[in-house]
Amino acid sequence: xxxxxxxxxxxxxxxxxxQLSPVELTDSVLERIGQVxxxxxxxxxxxxxxxxxxxxxxxSDIAAGRYRGPLHGIPMGLKDLIDVAGVATSASSxxxxxxxxxxxxxxxxxxxxxxxxxxxxxxxxxxxxxxxTPQTSNAWDPDRVxxxxxxxxxxxxxxxxxxxxxxxxxxxxxxVPAALNGVIGLKPTYGLVPRHGVTSxxxxxxxxxxxxxxxxxxxxxxxxxxxxxxxxxASLTTPPVDYRPGADTDLTGLRVGVPRTYYFDHVDAEVESxxxxxIGRLEALGARLVDVDIPMTRYIQATQxxxxxxxxxxxxxxxxxxxxxxxxxxVRILLEAGELMPAGDYLRAQRARTxxxxxxxxxxxxxxxxxxxxxxxxxxxxxxxxxxxxxxxxEGVSDAYxxxxxxxxxxxxxxxxVPVGHDAAGLxxxxxxxxxxxxxxxLLRTGHAYEQTQPARRLARAA
Length: 463
Prior knowledge:
It holds the Pfam family Amidase. Helices cover 38% and strands 15% of the residues. It is an alpha/beta fold and 463 residues long.
């Protein structure tokens, strides 16, 4: 096994015990980038010399006994919405062509303090306003979409060009590409991870979280990110939590809600079969399955768009008026549509969100978490705009990908996507676990228990 193939926890153990140096790991990851990046296009920019310099410093510090913990010397990618001082934050847009961050975002500063090494900034759908990331190819099949908007981060992790990465999630933008590329994606509770210094899409829906190769890796990264930040008005004040899931795979007493409604409607048969098999594995580990009905399903899509569209337009108001030609057409049209939405529609969406949060809170008193597909189908072909379901219903690709992930954004609930197999074409399938606010540890423990019943996952068949 080459160093770039190691998941974070194993790489960290090897570095801690001096069996692997940060320089060796970094060189391996950068070599891997040279091999696959021309085809995959996960990165906007690769900071190779900066990374090598930081790796040498980490190696020196560790040799001198100044080991900072499991992220020390680990190469990472950051979605190109996340500011790093002195590095461009382009948001994959011509609007930001000349922008260079003056200071670190809170999450970048915390990862740097933990010793993580920036490899580069990863592509996003322009300003995170989309579910495909058209610049980037799927790690398993370059003719397929990467998913979005954190497509570059998910592909980098899946292909071995970053040991871990950060993404952002406004309607599924961490979990969708994680599912489509066969890696772990965690959207934490709203407010748990600070967003200061992260370009916003929709302030009341935006989250920052890790994309990794294993559930344990996600727990390690999350531990470095949490903690109150006075610069983010939504930031929660929470006590320190050890998110590591531990070795115990006994899920006795865990009540897993299996949706009778919504989450298995208009879902590919192979996706449904794989997710139901995975839910069966949770039951075999001791969990009790409980059939549940998802509340207010007819209002989910309208509420998501009713919140996101006007908030995004408000953020872009100035540049939309002064330089509309710099936006890609799909994003510009959405932003212009937001200017036409009455304030009453936004207020009704906020009221619907409040009611939805109440109904989900009631549901999650009956069960400990919900298990369902992350996305209704695997990665579609690049350029494909619609999906036709078995009953003849035609759905837009972005609408399909956001449909199952957006409830956790509307409600602010934590959600974890875990790979649960592949379809007949070899494309990854993801299962989503949705839990109560601030119960990330329960989600991680459940995902980790499932993961331990499966063979170790390999990296994507990148070119």
